[in-house]
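I had to read the description of the data format several times before I understood it. Each protein is reduced to its one-letter sequence and a matching series of backbone shape codes. The format is easy to grasp once an entry is in front of the reader. For illustration, here is how one protein appears when written out as sequence plus structure tokens:
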Amino acid sequence: MVNSANQLHRARLVAASQPHTAAWLQAVPVPSLGLHLDEESVRVAVALRLGATVCEQHRCRLCGRQVDQLGHHGLSCVKSAGRLPRHAQLNDVVRRGLASAGIPSILEPVGLDRGDGKRPDGLTLFPYSGGMCLTWDATCADTFADTVLIQTALEPGAAARAAEDRKRRHYSEISSRFKFVPIAVETSGVLGPATSKFIRELGQLITTRTGERRETEWLLQRLSIAVVRGNAAAVLATAATDRARADRRQQPPSDVTGERTRPSPPPSVTTGRASAKQTARQASPEFLADEPLALPSEEASAPPNTRLSHHSLPGNPSEDGGGTGSESDGRPLGLTGLRNTGNTCFLNTVVQCLSNTRALHDYILRDGRSSDASMPAAATKGSLMNTFSALIRDMWTSSDETERVLTTAPLKSMIQRLAPRFMGSQQQDAQEFLRYLLQGLHEDVNRVTSRPKPITTDIDDSLSASQKSMEAWKRFLRLENSKFVDLFVGQLKATLRCTVCGHASVTFDPFWDLSLPIPSRSGQVRLQACFDLFTKEEVLDGDEKPTCSKCQKRQKCTRSLSIQKFPRILVVHLKRFSPQERFRGKLNTTVDFSVNGLDLSPYSAGQTPCRYSLYGVANHSGTLLSGHYTAHCRHPYTAEWYEYNDSRVHVMDQRNVNSGKAYVLFFELAGSKHRSGSTHV
């Protein structure tokens, strides 16, 4: 069969002979784990694998080139809608895999580039192998591209191998300081040799930690699903039309109970009679969202029902930012429900917590943040911030309705462009969504409009710890500086101490939130016990030995964490779904936290007095596979506590705020400007 096929089909058959290219077929389609593929993604994946007809011939709406019935053009179109999300999902799989192995990492590391301003996709925060941190850069090479077709028809993975070689050359400058691994996957699903080796090593590391032998298999499945989703989006987008996008937005919404209203499925494109509009309507929403809005002002960006006059804001602003936050009849503003449009309780919960963040609330409604949004350098051109601001303003608009309910559909559509992993209607993790949302909003109002070249030199080791901290923070602000950084970003101090010579080296890294382990599987623990475990000194020995900068060789060391800079708003994530609990369920341990005061002075790098007050809790009820999010928030004006359960909002007793369902905690630094009234239980 291979011998009688032409080059195109020979390349397809050679690739299909590799076992891991069908990994997506072995994945259990669990939506809450991100393993579910919609019908169109499956259809396109099967057609590409079998060499069947995907669509009728047409011209690509993105670049104008001819698209044949196999649909391969979309896989390598320079304007493809699937390239960016596919790339993002590949990196997300690697980052999550490293986290499951107990190795924290960051994407798009600041201050690390290859000499031309371009930086790798990810970096581990601690040594991965040989005393060096791991850095990686991912790509997806097209198996059927004209430039590599001759090679891929003869050798499976030839395109991925060539891509890995290019990555090594491009990042040769940093390979002496970091362990660099190129991540290359082909559109047919074939992995490059270095990628295959790395994935299997990472799978073994996770297995060592969890005891589950199938970790490598699951990693391969996630990589395969990421490629399949990106391929489908790229192929379908070649025919999508603006009219189709409008039709998709007009599909019936979900009801307030969260049950999704399903429209009748359109005819399959494979019949040859389906229109481009029908193709687009079946595609994943995050790839067919509106184009970024080029709107000149904040008010112009708001939907008609959210454009506000000044008197509709909560109270009259004064010099100290005060206000009543009440309607004319004395009922507090801001008690607005959010409609569940299909497993969007995670989004609704995060929005409610941010809506009750007094400093952020004032920034959006009072402090004239338009000067920040008028100079966006982000890919969304400020439209994410405009959409979010419009929603918050509408939530705080005076209304005659006794129970107002709004939709978050525009915000969800916008966030999907920034982070395609939040596509579809599957349940998502609230903490991860919060992180992506805050960083996306930050990018939209970043005061650094022209990014300077990162400083790649190490901070002078002769400086004191406080001087190193200031220099690290200064370098961070050169690239990342916004109101969201002012409010939410703190700084961690990591101390690595050699047990042989006693030399201690310190590094400082910014953080948007703190993910705390829970020390007990059941019963009740204090929040301070979680902080104790987070900052506990650990021993690095054996394969984890780092290189001591004084001994100049790998030595047994200890590592500890402390908080160097406390943010004004502290977000604490309780790790109820740690890698170790993957097959043993969710940790339902009750973490006891004080509503009226959290003393974090013992965890300060300089023993600085520091107290926080709780004002918001994102709760998760249910299991790993199925659950529901709700929010408990203290009103920023009245200091009363309310429960937000999608469209339903009602007052609650402060004594019920603390429960075994608490997942993400929101604290405000004591003494902060605009701090609301008493939080005494």
Remarks:
- Residues 492 and 563 are 5 Å apart (CA to CA).
- The chain has 21 helices and 24 strands.
- The mean pLDDT is 79.
- The chain has three domains: 7-243, 301-444, 465-669.
